[in-house]
Amino acid sequence: MTGRFIVIDGPSGVGKTTTVALLASLVAADGWEVHRTKEPSHTTLGETARHGTDEYRGLTLACLVAADRYHHLDTEIRPAITAGKVVICDRYLATSLVLQRLDGVDGAYIWALNQHIDRPHLTIILTGDPVRSRARAAARGIHSRFHRGGPEAGYHERERYDQVAEELAEAGFPVHLHDVGEQQPEEVAAALLSPVRALLTVAGTQPPTGNAARISES
Ligand SMILES: Nc1ncnc2c1ncn2[C@@H]1O[C@H](COP(=O)(O)OP(=O)(O)OP(=O)(O)O)[C@@H](O)[C@H]1O
Ligand SMILES: Cc1cn([C@H]2C[C@H](O)[C@@H](COP(=O)(O)O)O2)c(=O)[nH]c1=O
Q1: What is the DSSP string of 52-95?
Q2: I want to staple 40 with a disulfide (CB 3.0 to 4.6 A). Which of 49, 99, 116, 153 is the partner?
Q3: For the range 50-54, what are the long-range contacts, defined as Cβ-Cβ under 8 Å and sequence gap of 24 or more?
Q4: Is domain 4-203 given the CATH code 3.40.50.300 in the classification?
Q5: Tens digits of residue pLDDT in 152-201
Q6: Is the CB of 99 under 6 A from ligand 2?
Q7: Where are the domains positioned within the chain?
Protein backbone atom coordinates (compact mmCIF):
# COMPACT_ATOMS: atom_id res chain seq x y z
CA MET A 1 0.00 0.00 0.00
CA THR A 2 1.29 3.49 -0.77
CA GLY A 3 1.59 5.99 2.06
CA ARG A 4 -0.14 9.25 2.70
CA PHE A 5 0.95 12.88 2.52
CA ILE A 6 -0.20 15.25 5.28
CA VAL A 7 0.78 18.91 5.57
CA ILE A 8 0.55 21.16 8.62
CA ASP A 9 0.64 24.85 7.78
CA GLY A 10 -0.26 28.18 9.37
CA PRO A 11 1.15 31.44 10.72
CA SER A 12 4.53 31.91 12.40
CA GLY A 13 4.58 30.65 15.97
CA VAL A 14 1.13 29.03 15.85
CA GLY A 15 2.71 25.69 16.75
CA LYS A 16 3.29 23.83 13.46
CA THR A 17 6.65 22.24 14.33
CA THR A 18 5.47 21.26 17.81
CA THR A 19 2.28 19.74 16.41
CA VAL A 20 4.09 17.83 13.66
CA ALA A 21 6.32 16.18 16.28
CA LEU A 22 3.43 15.24 18.60
CA LEU A 23 1.13 14.08 15.82
CA ALA A 24 3.94 11.98 14.30
CA SER A 25 4.28 10.17 17.64
CA LEU A 26 0.53 9.51 17.86
CA VAL A 27 0.33 8.23 14.28
CA ALA A 28 3.40 6.02 14.82
CA ALA A 29 1.81 4.69 18.02
CA ASP A 30 -1.11 3.55 15.84
CA GLY A 31 1.37 1.43 13.88
CA TRP A 32 2.06 3.62 10.84
CA GLU A 33 5.59 4.24 9.62
CA VAL A 34 5.96 8.03 9.73
CA HIS A 35 8.36 10.42 8.04
CA ARG A 36 8.59 13.95 9.51
CA THR A 37 9.88 16.72 7.35
CA LYS A 38 9.61 20.47 6.75
CA GLU A 39 9.85 23.20 4.13
CA PRO A 40 12.07 24.86 3.28
CA SER A 41 13.97 21.56 3.34
CA HIS A 42 17.23 20.97 5.17
CA THR A 43 19.22 21.00 1.92
CA THR A 44 21.54 23.86 0.90
CA LEU A 45 18.73 25.17 -1.30
CA GLY A 46 16.20 25.05 1.53
CA GLU A 47 18.45 26.60 4.14
CA THR A 48 19.23 29.39 1.68
CA ALA A 49 15.51 30.14 1.49
CA ARG A 50 14.91 29.81 5.26
CA HIS A 51 17.73 32.11 6.30
CA GLY A 52 17.87 34.29 3.19
CA THR A 53 14.63 36.22 3.39
CA ASP A 54 16.42 39.53 3.88
CA GLU A 55 18.46 39.00 0.72
CA TYR A 56 15.90 37.19 -1.46
CA ARG A 57 12.45 38.65 -2.03
CA GLY A 58 9.43 38.62 -4.34
CA LEU A 59 9.78 36.54 -7.50
CA THR A 60 13.28 35.36 -6.56
CA LEU A 61 12.13 33.91 -3.24
CA ALA A 62 8.96 32.47 -4.84
CA CYS A 63 11.12 30.59 -7.37
CA LEU A 64 13.62 29.54 -4.70
CA VAL A 65 10.98 27.96 -2.43
CA ALA A 66 9.25 26.31 -5.41
CA ALA A 67 12.57 24.84 -6.62
CA ASP A 68 13.23 23.56 -3.10
CA ARG A 69 9.72 22.03 -3.05
CA TYR A 70 10.28 20.09 -6.30
CA HIS A 71 13.64 18.82 -5.03
CA HIS A 72 12.07 17.89 -1.69
CA LEU A 73 9.29 15.97 -3.49
CA ASP A 74 11.77 14.16 -5.78
CA THR A 75 14.32 13.19 -3.17
CA GLU A 76 12.36 12.76 0.04
CA ILE A 77 8.57 13.04 0.02
CA ARG A 78 7.70 10.79 -2.96
CA PRO A 79 10.18 8.03 -2.00
CA ALA A 80 8.76 7.96 1.55
CA ILE A 81 5.17 7.77 0.26
CA THR A 82 6.14 5.02 -2.18
CA ALA A 83 7.67 3.14 0.76
CA GLY A 84 4.24 3.24 2.44
CA LYS A 85 5.05 5.92 5.02
CA VAL A 86 2.81 8.66 6.34
CA VAL A 87 4.69 11.84 5.49
CA ILE A 88 3.93 14.80 7.76
CA CYS A 89 5.36 18.03 6.38
CA ASP A 90 5.69 21.35 8.24
CA ARG A 91 4.72 24.10 5.72
CA TYR A 92 3.97 23.62 2.00
CA LEU A 93 1.91 25.40 -0.67
CA ALA A 94 -0.25 27.42 1.77
CA THR A 95 2.87 29.17 3.05
CA SER A 96 3.81 30.19 -0.49
CA LEU A 97 0.28 31.43 -1.21
CA VAL A 98 0.39 33.61 1.92
CA LEU A 99 3.99 34.80 2.21
CA GLN A 100 4.89 35.20 -1.44
CA ARG A 101 1.68 37.21 -1.95
CA LEU A 102 2.65 39.39 1.02
CA ASP A 103 5.91 39.84 -0.88
CA GLY A 104 4.05 41.20 -3.91
CA VAL A 105 3.89 38.07 -6.07
CA ASP A 106 0.68 37.50 -8.00
CA GLY A 107 -1.38 34.49 -6.84
CA ALA A 108 -1.75 33.14 -10.37
CA TYR A 109 2.02 33.10 -10.74
CA ILE A 110 2.45 31.23 -7.43
CA TRP A 111 -0.09 28.63 -8.59
CA ALA A 112 1.70 28.36 -11.95
CA LEU A 113 5.07 27.86 -10.27
CA ASN A 114 3.55 25.09 -8.16
CA GLN A 115 1.43 23.45 -10.86
CA HIS A 116 3.48 20.22 -10.86
CA ILE A 117 3.67 19.66 -7.10
CA ASP A 118 1.84 16.76 -5.43
CA ARG A 119 -1.49 17.48 -3.79
CA PRO A 120 -1.40 16.43 -0.12
CA HIS A 121 -4.05 13.92 0.97
CA LEU A 122 -4.77 16.36 3.82
CA THR A 123 -3.71 19.96 4.50
CA ILE A 124 -4.18 20.99 8.12
CA ILE A 125 -4.14 24.74 8.68
CA LEU A 126 -3.61 25.83 12.27
CA THR A 127 -4.86 29.25 13.30
CA GLY A 128 -4.67 30.97 16.65
CA ASP A 129 -4.45 34.25 18.47
CA PRO A 130 -1.88 36.26 16.46
CA VAL A 131 -0.58 38.10 19.52
CA ARG A 132 0.16 34.81 21.26
CA SER A 133 1.66 33.23 18.11
CA ARG A 134 3.94 36.19 17.39
CA ALA A 135 5.10 36.29 21.02
CA ARG A 136 5.95 32.58 20.94
CA ALA A 137 7.88 32.95 17.69
CA ALA A 138 9.80 35.91 19.13
CA ALA A 139 10.60 34.01 22.35
CA ARG A 140 11.83 31.02 20.33
CA GLY A 141 14.01 33.19 18.04
CA ILE A 142 13.47 35.01 14.75
CA HIS A 143 15.29 33.88 11.61
CA SER A 144 13.09 35.36 8.90
CA ARG A 145 11.75 38.77 7.98
CA PHE A 146 8.28 37.16 7.80
CA HIS A 147 8.44 36.52 11.56
CA ARG A 148 9.03 40.18 12.34
CA GLY A 149 6.29 42.72 12.93
CA GLY A 150 3.90 43.05 15.82
CA PRO A 151 0.27 42.06 16.33
CA GLU A 152 -0.91 43.89 13.20
CA ALA A 153 1.32 41.75 10.97
CA GLY A 154 0.11 38.70 12.88
CA TYR A 155 -3.58 39.52 12.31
CA HIS A 156 -2.91 40.11 8.63
CA GLU A 157 -1.05 36.80 8.31
CA ARG A 158 -3.85 34.86 10.04
CA GLU A 159 -6.47 36.46 7.79
CA ARG A 160 -4.44 35.40 4.74
CA TYR A 161 -4.21 31.81 5.98
CA ASP A 162 -8.01 31.73 6.50
CA GLN A 163 -8.45 32.91 2.90
CA VAL A 164 -5.89 30.42 1.58
CA ALA A 165 -7.68 27.57 3.39
CA GLU A 166 -10.76 28.43 1.31
CA GLU A 167 -8.70 28.88 -1.84
CA LEU A 168 -7.11 25.44 -1.45
CA ALA A 169 -10.47 23.81 -0.71
CA GLU A 170 -11.95 25.42 -3.84
CA ALA A 171 -9.00 24.04 -5.82
CA GLY A 172 -9.91 20.54 -4.58
CA PHE A 173 -7.38 20.17 -1.76
CA PRO A 174 -8.78 18.37 1.31
CA VAL A 175 -8.36 21.02 4.04
CA HIS A 176 -8.91 20.85 7.79
CA LEU A 177 -8.83 24.20 9.62
CA HIS A 178 -8.09 24.03 13.36
CA ASP A 179 -8.09 26.97 15.78
CA VAL A 180 -5.64 26.11 18.58
CA GLY A 181 -7.30 28.61 20.92
CA GLU A 182 -5.86 28.05 24.38
CA GLN A 183 -5.13 24.36 23.85
CA GLN A 184 -1.89 22.87 25.11
CA PRO A 185 0.29 21.27 22.39
CA GLU A 186 -0.84 17.74 23.40
CA GLU A 187 -4.49 18.81 23.10
CA VAL A 188 -3.91 20.21 19.62
CA ALA A 189 -2.29 16.96 18.45
CA ALA A 190 -5.04 14.85 20.05
CA ALA A 191 -7.73 16.93 18.32
CA LEU A 192 -6.04 16.41 14.94
CA LEU A 193 -5.70 12.67 15.37
CA SER A 194 -9.34 12.13 14.51
CA PRO A 195 -9.28 13.63 10.95
CA VAL A 196 -5.89 12.00 10.39
CA ARG A 197 -7.18 8.57 11.46
CA ALA A 198 -10.19 9.07 9.19
CA LEU A 199 -7.77 9.60 6.30
CA LEU A 200 -5.55 6.65 7.17
CA THR A 201 -8.25 4.17 8.03
CA VAL A 202 -9.52 3.26 4.60
CA ALA A 203 -12.37 0.75 5.00
CA GLY A 204 -10.93 -2.66 5.72
CA THR A 205 -7.31 -1.49 5.80
CA GLN A 206 -5.29 -1.83 8.97
CA PRO A 207 -2.00 -0.08 9.78
CA PRO A 208 0.92 -2.06 8.32
CA THR A 209 2.13 -3.12 11.77
CA GLY A 210 0.16 -3.97 14.86
CA ASN A 211 2.74 -2.28 17.10
CA ALA A 212 4.16 1.19 17.51
CA ALA A 213 6.18 2.00 14.38
CA ARG A 214 9.26 4.06 13.66
CA ILE A 215 9.52 7.77 12.87
CA SER A 216 12.16 8.96 10.41
CA GLU A 217 12.91 12.63 9.93
CA SER A 218 14.89 14.93 7.68
N1 LIG B 1 -0.31 25.05 21.94
C2 LIG B 1 0.77 25.66 22.45
N3 LIG B 1 0.72 26.24 23.66
C4 LIG B 1 1.80 26.87 24.17
N5 LIG B 1 3.00 26.97 23.56
C6 LIG B 1 3.12 26.41 22.37
C7 LIG B 1 2.03 25.73 21.72
N8 LIG B 1 2.45 25.28 20.52
C9 LIG B 1 3.73 25.66 20.42
N10 LIG B 1 4.14 26.32 21.49
C11 LIG B 1 5.48 26.93 21.72
O12 LIG B 1 5.55 28.06 20.86
C13 LIG B 1 6.83 28.16 20.24
C14 LIG B 1 6.67 28.13 18.72
O15 LIG B 1 6.17 26.85 18.36
P16 LIG B 1 6.53 26.16 16.98
O17 LIG B 1 7.99 26.33 16.68
O18 LIG B 1 5.96 24.80 17.00
O19 LIG B 1 5.68 27.09 15.99
P20 LIG B 1 5.76 27.19 14.40
O21 LIG B 1 4.38 27.46 13.95
O22 LIG B 1 6.43 25.99 13.85
O23 LIG B 1 6.67 28.48 14.24
P24 LIG B 1 7.44 29.04 12.93
O25 LIG B 1 6.45 29.23 11.87
O26 LIG B 1 7.98 30.34 13.39
O27 LIG B 1 8.51 28.05 12.60
C28 LIG B 1 7.66 27.00 20.78
O29 LIG B 1 8.46 27.49 21.83
C30 LIG B 1 6.61 26.01 21.29
O31 LIG B 1 7.10 25.27 22.40
C1 LIG C 1 7.81 26.94 2.71
C2 LIG C 1 8.08 28.40 2.52
C3 LIG C 1 8.89 29.08 3.39
N4 LIG C 1 9.12 30.40 3.24
C5 LIG C 1 10.01 31.08 4.22
C6 LIG C 1 9.31 31.72 5.34
C7 LIG C 1 10.31 31.66 6.47
O8 LIG C 1 11.33 32.59 6.26
C9 LIG C 1 10.94 30.37 6.30
C10 LIG C 1 10.32 29.30 7.15
O11 LIG C 1 10.46 29.58 8.51
P12 LIG C 1 10.38 28.46 9.63
O13 LIG C 1 10.25 29.22 10.90
O14 LIG C 1 11.65 27.68 9.55
O15 LIG C 1 9.18 27.63 9.35
O16 LIG C 1 10.81 30.11 4.88
C17 LIG C 1 8.55 31.10 2.21
O18 LIG C 1 8.75 32.30 2.05
N19 LIG C 1 7.73 30.42 1.35
C20 LIG C 1 7.48 29.10 1.45
O21 LIG C 1 6.70 28.52 0.63
Answers
A1: -TTT--HHHHHHHHHHHHHHHIIIIIHHHHHTT-EEEEES-HHH
A2: 49
A3: 50/143, 50/144, 51/143, 51/144, 53/144, 53/145, 53/146, 54/145
A4: yes
A5: 899 999 999 999 999 999 999 999 999 999 999 999 999 999 999 999 98
A6: yes
A7: 4-203
Ligand 2 within 6 A of CB of 18 = no
Rounded to 5 degrees, φ, ψ at 172 are 95, 10
Separation of CA 136 and ligand 1 centre (Å): 6
Q: Closest Cα to atom 10, ligand 2: which residue?
A: 50
Check: CB of residue 40 under 8 Å from CB of residue 95. Answer: no
User: Atom 11 (ligand 2): residue with closest C-alpha?
Assistant: 50
Strand partners, 217: 36
Rounded to two decimals, what is the model's pTM? Answer: 0.96
pLDDT tens by residue, 53-67? 999 999 999 999 999
Report residues whose beta carbon is within 6 angstroms of any ligand 1 atom. Answer: 12-18, 136-137, 140, 147, 180, 183-185, 188
